[in-house]
Amino acid sequence: KNESSFASHKWYAICLSDVGDYEGIKAKIANAYIIKEHFEKAIELNPKDATSIHLMGIWCYTFAEMPWYQRRIAKMLFATPPSSTYEKALGYFHRAEQVDPNFYSKNLLLLGKTYLKLHNKKLAAFWLMKAKDYPAHTEEDKQVKRNRSS
């Protein structure tokens, strides 16, 4: 394991996150702090990697919108379950845009969705329009266009 490689930390966190997607909520919550730690280390080692910054934003967004029943499970499993806020997620999404403007359609979409969660319709509309206008190069870009309002 290369401790000084930002990519190693980023991909370790991504892979561990994917494990949670397949093994369920218990594994996802159990790995949450480790995932966060590796994304933070990746950002520390390479503060210009917009993808790592964006993924840290997703981590924050995910735990900010965690449903009540998952929070209850988390409280039963851990003394201090992972949590975050939409404001923190927004900060990471904006930081990713500052590092590499318009690098990823999903970052634009999540900026819009986060502003909606924070009840700022004007900025939500601005970022959702940017996501809509983003040229669809990949299948994921096309999916973002379809899901921009969900």
From TrEMBL:
GO cellular component terms attached to this protein's record: microtubule; spindle pole
Under InterPro entries, the record lists: RMD1-3_a_helical_rpt (IPR049039), TPR-like_helical_dom_sf (IPR011990)
Where would you find this protein in the cell?
Cytoplasm, Cytoskeleton, Spindle pole
Which Pfam family is an annotated match for this chain, by its short name? Answer: RMD1-3
What keywords are annotated for this sequence in UniProt?
Cytoplasm, Cytoskeleton, Microtubule, Repeat, TPR repeat
Q: Which Gene3D superfamilies match?
A: Tetratricopeptide repeat domain
SUPFAM superfamilies on file: TPR-like (SSF48452)
Subunit record text: Interacts with microtubules.
Q: What is this protein called?
A: Regulator of microtubule dynamics protein 1
The species is Pan troglodytes
Q: What is the lineage of its organism?
A: Eukaryota, Metazoa, Chordata, Craniata, Vertebrata
